[in-house]
Amino acid sequence: MINEEFKLYEKKTGNSRKMYEKACEVIPGGVSANIKYFEPHPIVMKKAGKSKLYDVDGNEYVDYLLCYGAMILGHGHTSVVEAVNKQLQVNGTAIFGTPHINETTMAKKIIELFSGIEMVRFTNSGTEATLFAIRMAMAYNGKSKIAKFEGHYHGGYDQVLLSVHPDIQKAGDAKEPKTIKESRGISDYYVNNTVILPFNDIESTKKILKKHADDISAVIMEPVQSGFIPADLEFMQELRKVTEELDILLIYDEVKTGFRLTLGGAQDIYGIKPDLTSLGKVLGGGFPVGAVGGKKEILEIVSPTGYGDILTPSASNDDKSLGLFHSGTYNGHPTVLAAGLATINELEKDNVMNSLIENTNYLREKLEGLYKSYNIPMQTVGMGSIFNIVLTDKKIKNYRDMNSADSKLRKEIDYALLELGVYSKPLNRYSMSTAHTIDDINFTINAHEKAIKRVMGRR
């Protein structure tokens, strides 16, 4: 059946196919990030505005991918554009390569909004932020292993590119998952030093953590798995308690959830303070950014004062082993932080976040009612301004539960939606923006009904 949707899709996106084929001649797989690919070829975009994307064939789409959630104000928001232009014009440069005022301003804003953050260091991506948070945790308590949850994604590097989307037949017991590589090129060292935990199963998680307590420096987790499967409150509370008891740091990866559930992220909703928090996506207002925040006593081990300099020739480096090195030419980029501050300022305006959540809930309720009217088992799973469409009646609490969903039907509907003008990568979650209007939402609901009729009519 999906072949029929492929034919319609390819007919509508012929220029994208041609441009993709040219890209494949000079870029491996034709994409700069593997997640940007989907069969038979991805859509090549030409421009964007507010809630819309426009491809090289002239097609218009209501955008629910939103750069995987980063564009919470939609595309080309006036305040962000003005802030970036002002920074470039007033400062006279894109970047100083020195400290600047936006770093302090943004750090103060993050500390004000996130209950678990007392100090901040900036990075260039969410991936860098999680990587740095893990290294910080290891440096702080001197243990060599980390623990992560099955189904959670923290970036494309060796230490955490494990058991993100494992084959269940190879992944072992649900209560004690095996560590499964998700890429070639990953050393067995990381397999042996990364412990996999079962999400939303606190008793099994406790048992594993206690078994490895002497070796685990930190537990890193997405409070909302994949951005749409929330942790149970009791699970979060007990996890915080047991990590404190075992002297294991708790890292919240809020790259997806930061500013999207509330301005203070998932930790605000759960009322729990992690030891470290990683941020990204929304924080940059459409530009690449990351940040690590947390307890002052942990963050201060990064301070260069009092420690050696490993990069400057002839500088004293006698004490370098006492410090935690962290650097990056573009860390705290003034243009990026200007865009991020403008984004946060918009979200802080009266009723902006409330309206965003209300519109998200409206779309979720209407879609659930629509699918029910066609007797298709379906639920929207999510929190705040993010959700996913899961075609099953079974309660979804972790990665393995997603196996009960009808992904084939969902995929067919997604390709029909692309042809009808609703954009997200097939099988991906939906992210909402403040730019989505009621007309956009109603258009989306109508498109879903057309897609259902078309796909089910062939079954």
UniProtKB/TrEMBL annotation:
PANTHER family (UniProt xref): GLUTAMATE-1-SEMIALDEHYDE 2,1-AMINOMUTASE (PTHR43713), GLUTAMATE-1-SEMIALDEHYDE 2,1-AMINOMUTASE 1, CHLOROPLASTIC-RELATED (PTHR43713:SF3)
A GO molecular-function descriptor: transaminase activity
Lineage of origin: Bacteria, Fusobacteriati, Fusobacteriota, Fusobacteriia, Fusobacteriales
Keywords, in A-Z order: Aminotransferase, Isomerase, Plasmid, Porphyrin biosynthesis, Pyridoxal phosphate, Transferase
Entry keyword annotation includes Transferase: yes
SUPFAM superfamilies for this protein: PLP-dependent transferases (SSF53383)
Pathway of action: Porphyrin-containing compound metabolism; protoporphyrin-IX biosynthesis; 5-aminolevulinate from L-glutamyl-tRNA(Glu): step 2/2
Cofactor entry: pyridoxal 5'-phosphate
Coiled coil: none
Gene3D superfamilies according to UniProt: Aspartate Aminotransferase, domain 1, Type I PLP-dependent aspartate aminotransferase-like (Major domain)
Documented EC number(s): 5.4.3.8
Pfam families linked to this entry: Aminotran_3
GO biological process: porphyrin-containing compound biosynthetic process
Family statement: Belongs to the class-III pyridoxal-phosphate-dependent aminotransferase family. HemL subfamily.
Protein name: glutamate-1-semialdehyde 2,1-aminomutase
InterPro entries named in the record: Aminotrans_3, PyrdxlP-dep_Trfase, PyrdxlP-dep_Trfase_major, PyrdxlP-dep_Trfase_small
